[in-house]
Amino acid sequence: MSKEKPKGLEPIKIDRQPTVLEGNDRITQVVSLNYEQRGVEPFVIRSVADRLLSISDDGPYSRRVRVGQEWQPFDLGWFKPEDIGVLVLENLSGPDKSVRLLIEVGVPTDTLTWLVYPGWPFYGTPTRIDLMKMRCVGGEVRCKTTVFPK
To answer: 42 and 7 in contact (C-beta within 8 Å)?
Structure first.
């Protein structure tokens, strides 16, 4: 059995070397989504981007929480809703667990929601985090929320 990686699945390289920032803080995202199908070359989407943040003494806030079947707000720590630059939610149940649970994210009064699969992250810049909530589909799950400043 060959140990070669399929084409397109090489690690993503960031073109610049990490530097100590003198001005604004920066957040960088590196994403590689790979769709593999029998007998076909993998379909790969790659994205590397960064964004400067405002100058702040506040670093990220990160907390592990349990999410049940009832809608609950996001734990924002010391951040005010208007000061959130990026919110990250990680579903900590994974493929190695006996129970794989989905986290639903959205506005409880709306029919449009997002599902976060086990082991996957969900992130973005919410415009109304005060309206957004999360819940577990079918039980209780551990997750981690991280908030970065604007």
So the answer is: yes
Q: Please tell me which residue, 111 or 1, carries the higher pLDDT value.
A: 111
Angle made by CA atoms 144, 56, 122, in degrees to the nearest 5: 25
Instruction: Give the count of alpha carbons within 13 A of 27, CB side only.
Output: 19
Strand-pairing partners, residue 27, are 51
Please state which CATH number belongs to domain 61-149. 2.60.120.10
Confidence (pTM): 0.79
Tell whether the model's pLDDT for residue 2 goes beyond 50.
Answer: no
User: Residues for the chain: how many in total?
Assistant: 150
Q: What's the farthest any 2 CA atoms get from each other in the chain?
A: 54
Task: Return the percentage of the chain with pLDDT > 70, whole number.
Answer: 81
Place of tokens 């993503």: 12
